[in-house]
Amino acid sequence: MNSDGWLHALTGELHRRGVDADLSRHVVAEAATHLRDSGEPPLQVFGLPANYAAAVAESVGTPRPGAGVARVAAPAGPPPAPGPVRLDVRGITKRYRRRTVLSDVDLTVRAGEIAAVVGANGAGKSTFLRICAGLLSPDSGQVRVYGKLGYCPQSGGTNDYLYPEEHFALVGAGRGLDRAEARAAGRSHAAALDWDPAGRTQARHLSGGTRQKLNLVMAALGEPDVLLLDEPYQGFDRGTYLDFWQQLWRWRADGRAIVVVTHLLNQLDRVDTVLDLTPARETSA
Amino acid sequence: MTKIWTVAELALREVLRRRGVLLILLVFPLAFYASRRGDHAGQSIRFVCLGLSWALSTAALFAGSAARDIEPRLRLSGYRAHHLHLGRLLALWTVGAVLSVPYFLLVRFDQTDVRYGAIALIMALTVATAVPFGLALSAILPKELEGTLVLLIVVGLQMVMDPADTASRVLPFWFSREIGTYAIDHTDSGYLVRGLVHGVTLTLALTALVATASGIRLRQRRHLRFE
Question: Which domain of life, per UniProt (chain B) (predicted)?
Fold first, then answer.
């Protein structure tokens, strides 16, 4: 199935599941952008259109006639009080030639908080995260990180010819972990995403979703204080998507500061801060 | 040192798993050697050294390009830029050293009346120079195709330019022709010294270029402060 066929099928499946037309267009546009940018086959990245649509429908809480709806279970009880500031972003402005992508953007995330970065295609979500990670320079503004930083890119970021556990060893050595510690930590984070990383499968042979799990585990190794996650759930199946959000809440409960780029808007009532880059303003959830 | 060794070990594993590339690396210089073995034994030695330099530079170019994706996140994971480029240099130098041994043995047992020590020196300098040359190209030219074309031009010029021409001394493997003349034609040691100085200087300069390019690309940006 080519990308056009897959996107058409996804549109139909979303409609059948009663997903709001605007949200449906948004989801399809995001998927199309990802497929175009990555050049990967849609079935490998997202799976079957029906399954992906079902995951979207469930995550937005749209009832399907005759079917039970399992929303992502939010953590029980009130969230713990946020701790000290871990990420402080002030006055970030970024231009590409004459086009201003980010204009005077501020964001503060404390320990034990999740901030969601949302916005339309081209709004500068990934640019913002890359600036926060120090991978890209802004035209003006400052980022202060209090502690260690972990970053999960939207795609790439792995070595095609290494096994998952070799990736853990590589990142672990940078974090000061020995091989056994890195492997144990990697396996533990992978288990939370329902993934067994043992075995001799090179990264290039992993499915798109599994490679993103590897990416996410690499970002979390060494227990960074600030986690920057750029749409890390691309290609996740429904179950893994739910596991991902559960893991995010666990990390929040552990006192991490998390920034996640997302376009699945139903989760916004479960995060602490929303940075909407479409109008370039910050609102609180 | 643990970080450098880890990068080196995993970079070496990566290269060893690229079996097609390894096979080409192994066979490529042999084709150069065989092409002139019948009519001019001396030229076949010069050509095998050039083939080795071309193969290793290309391997380093591709290894450097492949690493561009993962290195920024490794930098964020606690590595410094020098851990990454030194580890990769060590891995590729090891591959080069291992690949050059059979070619030295080939010359040793297939050729007579040659200064074998000088041939070993050419091969050692070839490995030392070709790796940072390929990595430097990957740092300067992020697109593999552009880097490959530049390599093609450099090695082509290396073959056609007269080594006695002053301009040919700017080419990275000029030392190979100079020491080759000493080894094959039994000229005076001036050829050996000039070649040695050229090879060592180029190796140091190219390694410094790789370190500088890596340091710039993976620098901590001024807007980001860790408290």
Answer: Bacteria
In-domain check, residue B138: yes
Hey, are the CB atoms on A171 and B74 less than 8 Å from each other?
yes
Which of A44, A40, A71, A53 shows the shortest CA–CA distance to A11? Answer: A53
- Answer yes or no: do A166 and B221 touch at CB < 8 A: no
Enumerate the residues of chain A whose CB falls inside 8 A of the CB of residue B224. Answer: 132-134, 142-145
pLDDT in tens, B80-96: 999 999 999 999 999 99
Total count of domains within chain B:
1
- Give a yes or no: residue B126 inside a domain: yes
Q: How far apart are CA B74 and CA B91, in angstroms?
A: 17
Tokens of B76: 């964020």
Mutation pick from A159, A162, A215 vs chain B, by most beta carbons of B within 10 Å, is A159
pLDDT band per the 50, 70, 90 thresholds, residue A155:
confident
User: Which candidate from B13, B74, B78 shows the least CB-CB separation from A166?
Assistant: B13
| CATH number of the A128-284 domain | 3.40.50.300
pLDDT tens digits, B94-129: 999 999 999 999 989 988 888 999 999 999 999 999
